[in-house]
Amino acid sequence: MTVKVLIPTPLQKFTNNQATLECDGSSISDLLEALETSCPGIKARLCDEQGHPRRFLNFYVNSEDIRFLEGTKTALQDGDEVSIVPAVAGG
Questions:
Q1: The pTM is what?
Q2: Domains of the chain
Q3: Which of 9, 28, 50, 79 has the greatest number of C-beta atoms within 10 Å?
Q4: Pairing of strands 81-86, 57-61
Q5: Taking a C-beta distance cutoff of 8 angstroms, is the pair 31, 74 a contact?
Q6: What CDD domains does the record tag this protein with (predicted)?
Q7: d(CA 17, CA 45)
Q8: pLDDT given at position 89
Q9: Where are any strands of DSSP class E within 1-91?
Q10: Distance between CA 91 and CA 89 in Å, rounded?
Q11: What's the pLDDT score for residue 88?
């Protein structure tokens, strides 16, 4: 199944400056592996040593935060859109 992935600008150096990728995966975890295969080095920027998304990155599936779904086990359907969004803080 094909999923559209929106890549934030700071990570586009791993995607040949592409802001959008089409990847296969039945879950966020599978999608992360597919991203690493097509864009070597990107997974280390997205995940910690245990394979969990880094704290300063938010992943959304069709505008739903995966933290409120099933995390990296969140199932994906053909045509879903996954957004990777850097956290913003300030005051």
A1: 0.91
A2: 2-86 (3.10.20.30)
A3: 28
A4: antiparallel
A5: no
A6: Ubl_CysO_like
A7: 16
A8: 73
A9: 2-6, 20-24, 57-61, 64-65, 81-86
A10: 7
A11: 80
